[in-house]
Amino acid sequence: DEKAIARLDAAAERGLGLPQYFRGTVLAGFSDCAGRADTVIADLEFVLAVRDQFPAGFLHSVHAALARAYACQGRTEEARAARERLGHAPGLSLVTEYSVSAEDGLRMTAPRLVETAPGVHVAQGYDIADFAFVLTDDGIVAIDAASHPRHVEAALRELRAVTRAPITHVILTHAHFDHIGGLEALAGPGTQVVAQAAFPDELALQAVSPPPFPALLPDGQDRRPHVVPDQLVQQPETLTVGGRRFTLLPVAGGETRDGLLVQLPDDGVVFVGDMCMPYLGAPFFAEGSAEGLFDALQTVQELRPRLLIHGHPPLTENFTVEALPGLLAALRDLHAVVADDIVAGRSLTDVLDRDHLPEVLRGHPAAILPYLVMREGFVQRVHDQRTGYWKADGDGVDPVGRAQWAAALDLLAGGRAEAFAAAGEELLTRGEPAVALRIVDGALLSHPADTPLAELRGRILHALVERHQLFSPFRFAYYAGLAGLTVSPAG
Prior knowledge:
Elements: H1 2-14, H2 18-28, H3 37-49, H4 58-72, H5 76-84, E1 99-101, E2 105-107, E3 112-117, E4 120-124, E5 131-135, E6 140-143, H6 149-159, E7 167-171, H7 177-180, E8 192-196, H8 199-207, E9 231-233, E10 237-241, E11 244-251, E12 259-264, E13 269-273, H9 290-303, E14 307-310, H10 313-318, H11 324-343, H12 348-353, H13 368-386, H14 402-412, H15 417-429, H16 433-446, H17 451-467, H18 473-483
Parallel strand pairs: 6-7, 7-8, 8-9, 13-14
Antiparallel strand pairs: 1-2, 3-4, 4-5, 5-6, 10-11, 11-12, 12-13
Helix pairs in contact: 1-2, 2-3, 2-4, 3-4, 4-5, 9-11, 11-13, 14-16, 15-16, 15-17, 16-17, 17-18
């Protein structure tokens, strides 16, 4: 520990920036801040002074560390104020930009209106999904419509500082509820709503599918919005509005069959919707297509764009134009491996445990992170679509319900809740929180009033929220919802 702290001190002496963040948060983790609460406070108050130079998610850990350091110095009111700025309940360790609440659902960054090209304003962080406003001489063309009118209205208030022009068109990249639920805030008299020809079919599929998990959408928002487009696009066509060209390209996409690429050919910009969503379709819907993804990736590359704008901030940041060639090659390689494994009778977990890393990625560094983000969902979707409900490993042959499984586990535990608690604690210590949750959930079916089990479940859910806070926003929101957590941007 002393050697590590000495290295942090040496780094902090060489320059200002990340060394102060790391030294301050590390020292705060020691008992009594390692006797250096003053250093923690100096380092992290500096970070707050230049907060715009750091990832916004880092502020969670900054305020947590400052609260501990102030407490070490007996500065009670300042410690309390730091805890209030955390943005979440004590006990969590977060550095994420994701936020989640019952009122607003999941968001993947702080709200901001970004001009990505002249007259192209992208609304990020107002909603789970991004949406955009393209300015023309005749008015505004909106791309997508978020999940809730309230979120669209918040972005419109920012846009009205730029222009008071009317919204003439709304182009929908696909029919998922998080991209169309706020349409009423955009579509007034005379507004033309444009979608792909398969849009009605996709909307009908959602209406008969299971509901998404709690915390994904704002509380009370209908996951089955009624939308009737004014124009359905069956073939590639160009829409010209106020001197600005919009090329509309139907694709089967990786996520839905009603994908619609929106190209601004004069700006080198393509709106791709959720073409590259890592789950290959919403994980709670029977949709998604590897082949559709391959075709869409190829189509986008042939357009030779300068910039891709996706339907969610992490996708726009990571699934760039430069990443596409290597990503397409790597996913084709993975697809072949998964197909061979299915023919060989390997289970889903066996295929996932391969952690297959295609050799082609060596020559495409920009594709490595997008591939790693997409790999698990890609494997799950392809395996699900190519296997029946009787799996090769016997799963599904005789379905066993949760209550039956819980009763069997209770036999093994001798009817003792403390046996389950001990197993859950050990699994959590081993870094297996998902398995621990399965055990403890089963135990609570047999011992619903056991307080230690309920408290352990809360800690397990916190561990799962922490695990998925950077690379899996849906899992982050899923476990936060189970735990009843609210995570807000740090103050």
